[in-house]
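Allow me, if you will, to draw on your knowledge of protein folds for a short while. I have a record of one protein: its chain in single-letter code and its fold written as discrete structure tokens. The full record is reproduced below for your convenience:
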Amino acid sequence: MFVVTEDDAAAIRATFEREGELSAAMELRRRFPLIPDNATARQHVRMIAGWQPLPVTPGPAAPQRPGKKR
């Protein structure tokens, strides 16, 4: 298991779009040297390339404090 930062993912996606899957797999293996082979790296690259940003959701509303009635 490994953690992919947004910077890593952006670099891998850019390489994938610019140069193709194999180059992106090499970029992934350069950043994560413990990935054992190109077949595994290519599977991970396809997953990372398909990621979409999460939708921005508003945070929870602040609870209303009971106040004086007018």
